[in-house]
Amino acid sequence: MKYLKENKFIILTIILLCGLMFIFINQKHGFHEDEIFSYGSSNYKYDNVYRWFGYAEANQDILYNQVLTGSVSNRINNLIKFAKDPNQFSKNETLAKEIPIFRAKEEALDYLAIQQEDIFNYFSVYHNQSRDVHPPLFYFLVHFISTIFYNQFSKYIIFIINLIFFIGTLICIKNIMEKLNRKNLTIPTMILYGASMGAISTVMFQRMYMMMTFFSILYLYYIIKFIKNNFKIEDNFFFTLTIICGFLTQYYFCIYIVLIFIILSVYLLFKKKFKNWFHFFKPHIIAAIIGITFYPFSIDDIFFSYRGLSGTDNKTNNFLENFQYYFEQIGKLFSVENFIIILLLVLAIILIYKISKKKLLKIEKKDFINLAVIIFPIILFIAIISKIAPFLGANYTSRYIMLLLPIIAIAVFYLLSFIFKKNLFIITLVISLILSVNGLVNNTPVYLYKDYEKVIKLANENKDKYFVYVFDNYFTHLSSMPEFMTYKESLILNNNIHDFKLLDNEKLNNENEFILCIKNWLNKEEVLNLVLENSKYESYEILLELDSDVESTYYKIKK
Questions:
Q1: Contacts with 119 (C-beta within 8 Å, 6 or more apart), sequence order
Q2: Helices 137-146 + 33-43 axis angle, to 10
Q3: 286-332 pLDDT, tens per residue?
Q4: Neighbours of 249 (CB within 10 A)
Q5: Sequence-ordered alpha helix ranges (H) in 271-296
Q6: Would you say 202 and 212 are in contact if contact means Cβ atoms under 8 Å apart?
Q7: pLDDT in tens, 63-91
Q8: Where are the domains of the chain?
Q9: Residues 70, 170 contacting (CB under 8 angstroms)
Q10: Among positive and negative, which fits the CA dihedral 125, 131, 132, 136?
Q11: What is d(CA 213, CA 87) in angstroms, rounded to the nearest whole number?
C-alpha cells in the first residue's frame, strides 16, 4: 500500500500510456507479412510458411518419420541437417513441384491458430525457428498465449505480449532513473518514450522487438546498478538470465550488450580492477554457453546466414547514407525532424550560455561512466547496423532501432539534468508533452494498415466465392492470410504463366464469378489477360484499388 501511495503518479502514467496502446491496437486492421509469420511459425506444426502448393503434409511426414527419431541429440543433429537442406531426407516430389492448389479457409486458420494436436508442441516451434534466422523465445511465448485463444486468430495475442514488455520497459526506466539519482525525471522520460510514435509502433508491430527492447533496457539497468555498487554484481542469477533471454529473443540484443561490455571492460582493465572485471565477464560467458547449447542454430544465424554478419542482403547503400538515415528515423519516431541537429544545436546554445556565465558543468566520475555506457552504445549500435542491417524503408528500418528508443529518452533527459539545476521536472515534462502531443496530432504509427479494413469488408461480402491471389515471391502473401481465412477457397498463383492454366478447372468454372487480387507492383493488365485467356471467364470489374500499405487491386471476374 505504501508503494502504491509513493508511486501513484508513476502508476497513473503507466496506466494512461497503456490506454494509449489500446486506442491504437483498435485501429490496427492489417499485418505486415513478418507479423503473420510470427503466428504461423509459432503455431503451425507443418511448416513455418503457409505454402500455396501441397507441401505441408509431405513436409510433416519427413519431419516425424525421418528427422525427429531416436535420442534428443540425434533429433537436434537431424534438425540442423534438415534446416540446411530438407531434400536430403526425402525424394518426395511434392517438395520439388510447386504446383498451386485450392486451399480451404480452414487450412489458413490452421496455420495461424492453435489446434488440439498443436497445444504445447514446443518442439515444432523450435523446429520452425531452426529454419529461420531468429531465436525461438518470442515464438514460444506466442505459442503459449495462443492456447488461451484456442482455434482463433487474434491480433491481441501478440499485443498482450508486447504490452507486458512495454510495461516492463517503463518500470525499467523508473528503476534506472532512481539509480541515476534522477527520480524526478521518471514521469517525463516515461512520457517522452511511451507516448512517442516509436514506442507505439513497437507495441503495434507484432514481432519480437518490444521484447528485445525490454531485455536491452533491463540489461542497462543492471549495468547502472553494477556501476553504482562499485563494480560489484549483486543479482548474478537475474543478470545472467537477462542475457540468456535477450540472446534467445533477437540477435541484435547481442550487438548492444557487447558494446557496453567492451566499454566497461576497457575501463575496468585500465583501472586494473581485474577481479571486478572477471565477475563482470563470468555471467556473460555463462549466458553465451547456455544460449548456444540450447539453440546451436544461433552460430549459423549470426555468422553465416543471409541475415548474418556475412549476409549478402546487407549491402543496400553506403555506410554514411545509412548512418544518416537511421538518425532521421529516430527523429521521426520521436516526432522531431532533424532530431540530432536540433538536439546538438540546443545543447550548444546552453553550453555557450553556461560558459559565458562561468557556470561550467560539474560532472562526477561515476556520472561520466554512466553517460559513457548510455550514450556511446547508442551511436556505435547505429554505426554497426548501418553496415550490417538489411533493407531500408519505414517498415524495416524502424524495427532495428526500436531497442534504442527508451535509452535515447533516458540519455536526453539525463544530459539535460547536468545543464538545468532549477525547474528540471517542469522543463523535461513540457518537452515530453510537446513532442508527444505533436506526434499524436500530426503523425501516425507504423504497422496499423488501416486500409486493410476495406479488404476484410470485401472478403466478408464475398465469403461464399473462390479467391484467386496473384503475387511474385514466396513470402508476402502471408499479409493476406485474413483473406484466405474468409473466402471459401483460395488459389495462390506466383505469377507463373504455366500456373494460370490451373484456372481452367471444373471447380472454378462451375461458378458465375470469383474474386481476383493482383499486387500493384505487377503488370496488372498482363495478369488480367492471362486470367481471362486461361479460364472460362470473359470480363472483369474493379472492386477495390489500394495504393497505401495494402498495395493490391481487387477485381470481380465474370462470365
A1: 147, 150
A2: 70
A3: 999 999 999 998 888 788 766 666 554 555 557 788 888 888 889 88
A4: 26
A5: 274-294
A6: no
A7: 655 566 666 666 667 666 666 665 555 54
A8: 31-154, 159-442, 452-558
A9: no
A10: positive
A11: 37
Q: 294, 254 in Cβ contact below 8 A?
A: no
| Cell numbers representing residue 472 in the block | 511474385
Contacts of 259 (CB under 8 A, 6+ apart): 376, 377, 380, 381, 384
Give 312's contacts (C-beta < 8 A, 6+ positions apart): 306
Q: What cell does 236 get?
A: 548474478
Residue in the block written with cell 531452426? 130
Look up residue 249 and give its DSSP letter: T
Instruction: Cite the beta strand spans of 449-538 per DSSP E.
Output: 466-470, 489-493, 513-519
- Amino acid code (one letter) for 186: T
In which residue are the cell numbers 501511495 written?
A: 5
Distance of CA 322 to the CA centre of its chain: 20
What b/e readout covers 470-480, taking b as 16+ CB neighbours within 10 angstroms? Answer: bbeeeebbbbb
Name the region of 134 (left: φ>0; alpha: ψ -120 to 50; beta: rest).
beta
The average pLDDT across 30-50 equals 92
- 386 grid coordinates: 548501418
Give the position of cell 543471409. Answer: 306
> Which residue, 196, 203, 173, is CA-closest to 185?
173
DSSP secondary structure code for residue 189 in this structure: H
354, 360 Cβ separation under 8 angstroms: yes
Q: Where are the beta strands (DSSP E) in 342-422?
A: none
Q: Could you identify the residue written with the cell 522487438? A: 209
Query: What is the identity of the amino acid at 447?
Result: Y
Q: Are strands 539-546 and 513-519 parallel, antiparallel or unpaired?
A: unpaired
Share of the chain above pLDDT 90, in %: 61
Closest CA to 283 of 247, 249, 307: 247
The DSSP bridge pattern shows strands 102-104 and 539-546 to be: unpaired
Residues 6+ apart with CB under 8 A from 382: 323, 326, 327, 401, 404
Residue 441 DSSP one-character state: H
- Cα(391)–Cα(462) distance, rounded to whole angstroms? 36
Amino acid letter for position 479: S
Sheet strand arrangement including 102-104? 102-104, 489-493, 466-470, 513-519, 552-558, 539-546
DSSP for residue 104: E
Residues in a beta bridge with 102: 491
Tell me the C-alpha to C-alpha distance, in Å, between residue 326 and each of 44, 251, 339, 342: 35, 19, 11, 16
CA separation for the pair 94, 54 (Å, rounded): 6
